[in-house]
Amino acid sequence: MMATMRINIGPIHPSTHGVLRFVADVDGDTIKRTETHVGFLHRGVEKLIENRMYMQSPSFMEKMDYIAPLSWDDLYVNTIEKAMGVNVKETAKYARVILLEFQRVASHLLWLGTFCNDLGQMFTSFMWSFRERDRIIKLLQDVSGGRMFYVNIRITGLNRKLPDDFKDRAYSLADYIEERILAYPDVLDSNPIFMERTKGIGVISKDNAIKYGVSGPVLRASGVGYDVRKANPYYIYEKVKFNVPTETAGDAYARYRIRYYEMLESIKIIRQALDAMPEDNDVVGMPIRLIYPQPNPTPIMNNAELPRGEGIIYMVPDKTRPYRIYLRSGTYTNIAILDKITENIKYADFFAIMGSLDLVASDIDK
Amino acid sequence: MEIQREMLVKISEELKSKGFNYLKFITAIDYNDHLEVIYSFYNISTNKDEMVTIKLQTDKSGKNRPELDTIIKAYPSADWFERELSEMFDIKINGRKTSRLLLENWNGTDPPMRKSFVWGREYKKEI
C-alpha cells in the first residue's frame, strides 16, 4: 500500500474561489484529511475602519464580499444609523429591500454558474446565470452609478433619486428572472451527472451545523430554519410574506436547492415591496461631509441576512469614527467546517463540497 | 453578563445546557488598560442572545500575556474565533491543541488589533 502524499490545492483564484489554500493528504485519489489556510487576502479592514471617518468606510465594506457588495455596505450604514439613532426614510426602506433582494438573486446566480463550472458542466448553466445576472447589474448600475461596486447607501437613504422608470423596470426584470430561473431544473435536476455529483456529497448533519456554527443557506440546508430576516426583522421584512426554505439532507444538492428556492422567494419579496412602495421617490439620504448626529457611545450589535450567511457587526462608536468594529461574515464560519467534512472523500468531490459552501476569500480574510 | 475568566468554561457549558448552543462570535476590544473579550451565544429555538464579557488586565511592557481558557469542547466553532483572537490581541488561549496563526504571518511582537499598534512602520519580511 502506498503512503499518503501531501499536496497543495490552491491558492489559485478561479478554482478555489478567491485565494484559498488547502493542504491535503491524499492516498491515490482519496483525500484522507485537509487543512485550510486562509489570510492571503487579509487587508485588515477592521483596523482601517477604526482610522477613518464613518462615511469613508462603505467602499471597504463593499470589497468584503465583492459578489454581493451592496449587502455589506447596507449592513454597515444601518449600524451607524442605529448608533446615531436616526430613522431611515420610509421609501428608502422599500428601495433598499428591493435592491438587496436583487443583489441576493445576482449573488446566487453567480454562485450557481461557478458551482456548475466546478462540477465540470462548463457552459450552459454558467452562460444562463450570467445572462440573468447581467440584467440585474444593469438595473443596479442605473440606480447607483457603479457597475461592480455601488456604494450608494447613505445615512437615512440612498445617494440619489431612483430613475423615473424604476418600478416598471424592476417589475419586468422580476418577471423575466422568474421565468428564466424556473427553466434551470431542466438542465440541473434532470441531469444525472449533476445529481450524481451533488447528492449525498459533503453532508453536514443538523447537529454538526449548529455545533460548528455554520450560517445562511448552509445552515438551512441542514434543517435549521434560522433566517435573520424572520428572526430579527429589519426594514420592511415584517410586512412582506415569504418563506424560509429548509432542507434536511445537508448535502451539496440540498444547498443548491436552498439557494434556488431563495431566489424565487426574493422575487416574491421584490414584487410585494414594489407594490407597497410609496410613490414620492423621497429616498435621498444625508450627503457625505455633513456633520452627522453624535452616535451613542454604547456598543451596538447589528446583524443581517447576507447572501452567504449571517453578517454581524459589533461596533463601539466614537465621535467621528468607530473606536472598534468587528465584522463576522457567514463564510468565515462556513469554511471552518470544511476540514471536518472533507475527511475520506474523493478528490473530485472536494471541489463540489467547497463550491457548495459558496466561499469568497475576501469575505473570510477581512 | 460580565464574568471572571476562571468561570468561562463552566458558564459556557451551563449556557449550552440551557439551549444557547450556537456561538455567533468571539471578539475583543482594547481599552488601553484592559481588554474586554466578548462571547456572543445564541439560542436558535427561542431567538435569544446572550453576551458574556470578560475583562483582562494588560500591561504596557507586554511581558504578561493575558490568558483565557478554551471553550472548544462545548463549542467546536470557537476554534477559528479563538485563533483570530489570540493572533490579533495577543491573548494566550490555554487548552488548545493547535495554535497556528489564522490570518497573518507576523513575528508576534506587535498585535495588530491592539491600540498600541504602530502605523506606517516598514514591514521587513523574515526569511
Quick synopsis:
Helices cover 48% and strands 13% of the residues of chain A. Chain A has 17 helices and 9 strands.
What does this structure look like?
- The complex is a heterodimer of chains A (366) and B (127).
- Chain A folds into 2 domains: 1-42, no CATH class; 43-358, Cytochrome-c3 Hydrogenase, chain B, CATH 1.10.645.10.
- Chain A is built from 17 helices and 9 strands.
- Chain A has helices at residues 13-16, 45-50, 58-64, 69-84, 90-118, 124-144, 166-181, 184-187, 192-198, 206-211, 217-221, 228-231, 252-276, 330-336, 338-341, 347-356, 361-365; strands spanning 5-9, 21-27, 30-37, 153-154, 157-158, 300-306, 309-317, 322-328, 345-346.
- In chain A, strands 1-2-3-9 form a 4-stranded antiparallel β-sheet. A 3-stranded antiparallel β-sheet of chain A has the order 6-7-8.
- In chain A, α5 packs antiparallel against α6.
- The radius of gyration of chain A is 21 Å and the shape is globular.
- The N and C termini of chain A lie far apart (43 Å).
- The model of chain A has no long low-confidence stretch (mean pLDDT 89).
- Chain B is of the alpha/beta class and 127 residues long.
- Chain B has a single domain (2-94), classed as Beta Polymerase, domain 2.
- In chain B, 17% of the residues lie in helices and 29% in strands.
- Chain B has 2 helices and 6 strands; from the N terminus they run βαββββαβ.
- Chain B has a 4-stranded mixed β-sheet. A two-stranded parallel sheet of chain B has the order 5-6.
- In chain B, a hairpin with a 3-residue loop joins β2 (22-30) and β3 (34-43).
- The N and C termini of chain B lie far apart (45 Å).
- The mean pLDDT of chain B is 83.
- At the A-B interface, β7, β8 and α14 of A face β2 of B.
